Amino acid sequence: NNPGFICVSPEYPESLAASYERGDDDNVRLDRKVITDKVLEALTTDMGDNIESFGFVGHSFGCATALEQSDDNQKRKWTRVLMAGSTGRQGRMEGPSLPQPNILLIVSKNDGVTSRFNQDIDSIIPEDYVRLDEDALRRREVVDDDDKKDRQRLPSKAALIMNRPNHISFLNDGVNQAMLNVLSPLLPIAQTLKLPVLDFDKYQQSQDAKETAHVIVPLITQYLKQEM
Average pLDDT, whole number, for the chain? Predict the structure, then answer.
């Protein structure tokens, strides 16, 4: 049998879609962990209990969701990709601080949201993480056979610090264009009122989602295939 992926994208209460009531009663209150736990329970129940590897890809606030998710089942393997969000360390710290193995960190120095909380992007990368080179990633081929091309394997603890992408650049181009169509008329008002616009003003000028995806999509695909 060939291995494969089951991909799930839950709608969390913080979603702008807001298609359901979150609930005020603590006994029935829906939050990210409750929803993700139910998703994992459904997967292991409906698809069989032989699923032993889970991958979480989080962007922005989704990084916290990816970091907090785990269980006591030692047979399961957890792989995480964190983009443009929390890495579990705020401010300058020394030494490693992420206990979970198998994490790929992707951040950008031009990310206005992340830099609001961490002026020095380099300081949020644990010292035991291997830094990846963006220019080298643009040139390298994706590894299809880990045994034959072991020298090109990615480190299990890896970090990519990019220079140009902003907070929105990491998202899908089609989604970004749809959001810009809605939000562009409101940007001047938000900027006048000094409201945070989550880098939509930057993306309105850069429009670089496809360029960013050219680097990060092969990287994330290879990392998940390798670690899962």
Answer: 81
Task: Output the CA angle 145-228-69, nearest 5 degrees.
Answer: 160
Task: Provide the residue type at 123 as one letter.
Answer: S
DSSP-derived secondary structure for 6-55: -------TT-TT--S---SSTTT---HHHHHHHHHHHHHHHS-TT--EEE
5-32 b/e with 16+ CB inside 10 Å = b?
A: eeeeeeebeeeeeeeeeeeeeeeeeeeb
pTM of model > 0.90 = no
Whether 76 and 228 have beta carbons less than 8 Å apart is answered as: no
The tokens describing 91, both together, are 């401010």
Tens of pLDDT, residue by residue over 20-63, are: 777 766 666 777 888 888 888 888 777 666 777 888 999 988 88
